[in-house]
Amino acid sequence: MAFQPMRIGTRGSPLALWQARHFASVARAAIPALAEDGALEEHIIATSGDKVQDKRLADIGGKGLFAKEIHEALADRRIDVAVHSLKDLETELPPGIVLACVLEREDPRDALILGAGCGAGTADDPLTVLPQGALVGTASVRRQAQLLHRRPDLRVDIIRGNVQTRLGRVAAGDFTCSLLALAGLKRLGMADRAQVVLDPEAMLPAACQGIVGITARADDAPTLALLARIEHAPSRLVADAERALLGALDGSCRTPIGAHATLLPDGRLRMHGLVARADGSFLRRNMGEAAAKDGPQLGRDLAAALKRESPADIFG
Fold first, then answer.
1. Which of 86, 109, 94, 73 is nearest to 19 (CA)?
2. What CA–CA distances, in Å, run from 282 to 74, 92, 316?
3. N or C: which end of the chain has fewer CB within 10 A?
4. In the chain, % of residues over pLDDT 90
5. Crossing angle for the helix pair 14-30 and 163-171, nearest 10 degrees?
6. How many CA atoms, within 13 angstroms, populate the side-chain half-sphere of residue 112?
7. Do β-strands 40-44 and 6-10 pair in parallel, antiparallel, or remain unpaired?
8. What is the DSSP string of 119-162?
9. Type and span of the H or E element at 72
10. What predicted TM-score, i.e. pTM, was given to this entire model?
11. Cβ–Cβ < 8 Å for 286, 303
């Protein structure tokens, strides 16, 4: 081989490992040199976000806790690239670290995982599957706010852990239901566990939900050149727009924010953005369109409109 193995950093959850190995398979297929034996190495790194399972991320430091130790390894040159669920990656990366490429987006929708006592629901309102006063397990203030805005009778309590843990707690009767990203369920071969899939009109996804992002060092030109060859350009366009909205709102994990951009048949980009109070007592949702290349500016403009039209305490 003409170069050292590319060392891939990842968290150790089943979904994180699937994503890292998917990245490796995409890289091998696109870059012949990486298909050689030993060209890629997987390095599992425990993160602070994985170690605390009984609190919301906002209470222990926010999204950056899922990447802090991984990016330290990247900066220290112990790894060459890092694989992330892009929705869990902070918008302002550490100095010297860049979002080098993104992979093709999987279905960004959320799904309801139902336990005992749930009904059949209706096409007009999928939340009718939940009985009055149902206990919903989620650590996402975005999901909580949208649920409570439409169903203030619901009760919400924290549930964290990997996909299998959350499914197990609903099956054990700890919660009436929970919500998971459909992308994660599909990637783990568990799409059948999504009893109710919520369209973005009913539950606006998190920014970049369903997208795998790869970070690298800004000064590592050879690696950046390789990663540019596997970039999924349409997914990058929507990711940049959604991350621009999130960054402009300066939202913490305490601020319910949703963002979902799509490319239209005519090549333009349409994006919906949402902010709310965690208790559902306020929710504002706006939509905008722009040329696809202007996605980041659309995100910033949409964020500015949401800020103007929301109470100041939303961003306090």
1. 86
2. 40, 27, 14
3. C
4. 82
5. 140
6. 28
7. parallel
8. ----SS-GGGGSPTTPEEE---HHHHHHHHHH-TT-EEE---S-
9. helix 68-75
10. 0.92
11. no
Give which of 294, 290, 288 is closest to 309, Cα–Cα: 288
Tokens of 18: 């699937």
pLDDT value at 3 more than 60: no
Per-residue model confidence (pLDDT) at position 254: 80
Beta bridge partners of 56: none
149: tokens are: 């805005």
DSSP SS3 for 8? strand
Residues present in the chain in total: 316
Phi, psi of 102 (to 5 degrees): -130, 155
Question: Residue 259 and residue 246: Cα distance in Å, rounded?
Answer: 8
User: Mean pLDDT across the stretch 149-171?
Assistant: 92
Contact 74, 201 (CB under 8 A): no
In which order are the strands placed within the sheet that holds 257-263?
257-263, 268-276, 283-291
Query: Which is catalytic among the residues 80, 88, 240, 301?
Result: 88
Q: Rounded to 5 degrees, what angle do the CA atoms 177, 181, 185 make?
A: 90
Contact indicator for 285, 274 with CB cutoff of 8 Å: yes
Q: For tokens 């170690």, what's the residue?
A: 51
| Token pair 């990663």: residue | 227
Q: Give the pairing type, strands 135-137 and 6-10.
A: unpaired
How would you label 165-188 residue by residue, b for 16+ Cβ within 10 Å and e otherwise?
ebbebbeeeebbbbbbbbbbbebb
* pLDDT tens figures, 41-76: 999 998 876 655 555 555 555 556 778 999 999 999
Q: Respond yes or no: is residue 88 known to be catalytic.
A: yes
List the one residue out of 174, 183, 177, 170 whose CA is nearest residue 154: 177
Q: Report d(CA 213, CA 140) in Å as an integer.
A: 20
Place of tokens 């800020």: 307
pLDDT of residue 57: 53
Question: Which residue type is seen at 146?
Answer: Q
User: Structure tokens of 6?
Assistant: 């590319």
Residue 215, helix vs strand vs coil: strand
